[in-house]
TrEMBL record:
Domain Smf/DprA SLOG residues, every copy: 79-287
GO biological process, one term: DNA-mediated transformation
Lineage, uppermost ranks: Bacteria, Bacillati, Bacillota, Bacilli, Lactobacillales
Protein name: DNA-protecting protein DprA
Family indicated by similarity: Belongs to the DprA/Smf family.
SUPFAM superfamilies attached to this UniProt entry: MCP/YpsA-like
Gene: dprA
Gene3D superfamilies per the UniProt record, alphabetical: 3.40.50.450
Naturally occurring in which organism (per UniProt): Vagococcus humatus
Protein origin, superkingdom: Bacteria
Entry-linked InterPro entries: DprA, DrpA_SLOG
Amino acid sequence: MEKLKFLIFCLKQVPGLSNQSILNVCQSVLETGRVTVSPEEIIHLANIQKKYEKKILTHLAYVENQRESFYVQYTHQPFITFLDQAYPTCLSQIYNPPVGLFYAGDISLLNKPAISMIGPREPTQYGYEVVEKFSPKLVTHPLVIVSGLAKGIDTKCHQEALKNQGKTVAVIGSGLNICYPKSNQRLQHYLMKHQLVVSEYPLNTPPYPYHFPMRNRIIAGLSKGTCVIQAREKSGTLITASLALEEGREVFAVPGDIGLEESKGCLKLIQLGAKCVYQPEDILEEFLF
């Protein structure tokens, strides 16, 4: 299994090779028991479109030439795959589960009861106050707070978890050595040392916009339920909530002023069947230990 794990690590370094493509390659390896796979076989197994084949083959050749260098990185960079016992069961059950996660911090947090808390990058003061109200009881229950380390509500969720001596996990959309937003550099470094930060992207990967919808499925997948503090009708926050609903997870929505754009997403979720919550006890009663 160690050879397959290293293969996954190497394939994660190939730009343009999707998570699902790598999963396809792994499935073949597990079925045949043959870890050595040629670039041409990878192209076939990964279902790469004809117009991208040349580009992917070039990247695969580079990775093969740098194999020794990548092995040094592999031995020093904490990395967990779906093959590992520590890989969280709740994450393995989602559609397109991440084949591997790079991490810094306490990996055991991935297997503790957790609640995802999400919201907009530009919330109202009310949104911040809700996080302050909910966090103390949630973290002392105890639940691990999972969020995305974006500015606004995400940052507030991580900060309140720390303030109340709780545990928190940040899922980011870049390599672990990239801080985005830069204003969260100090917080990210602290979480990497004392809590947990995870990413499915290798070092030096920029925070491309299309990474964040992919990141959102991990935020939703790491917990039994997702609490939406505030959300506009069309937002990344609603993408995460929708993913949670699709996976059969609980979705909690905090009601707000019907005249505010930041409330419309939550009100819509409540109409669609999300549980309306106005106190932490409304969430805790859904978590049975």
